[in-house]
Amino acid sequence: MTVRHWSLAGLAFCALMMAVALALQYVVGxxxxxxxxxxxxxxIAAALVFLVAAIHNPRGWxxxxxxxxxxxxxxxxxxxxxRHVWLQSLPADxxxxxxxxxxxxxxxxxxxxxxxxxxSGSGECxxxxxxxxxxxxxxxxxxxxxxxxxxxxxxxARGFIRRRRD
Length: 166
Fold this sequence. Notes:
By secondary structure, this protein is mainly α.
């Protein structure tokens, strides 16, 4: 398989993840918390890398470069989803208090402060609102990111193999 094939597979998986997220929001009525929004940003960032890689379809080590960029986006998603899962596993007395909404923070705070506050978590991110087959939505998202990580890992491995052959 070429870089284009792997990238299209990654792009399709990102589209599936976003379709599920949007269906949960607009069909089921589950509003995303700030950590959910950052997970969506990570999915979109990975999708953009896979889209450019699919269009470019580089030969040789170029696929490894796209793999590395994709892995950075996916690793960010894994970190945020992992943090979300951790927050939901806290006992009720250890859950951070709810802070201001993400929209408000984006308007009045510098981006670094917004990131810091969101990643430190809030009570709304610790609330378990959706469970399917005994697994919470952030846990499903973490699994999705781990599966998605296979695409950039394959692209990186292909880049190393091609480089060794050349």
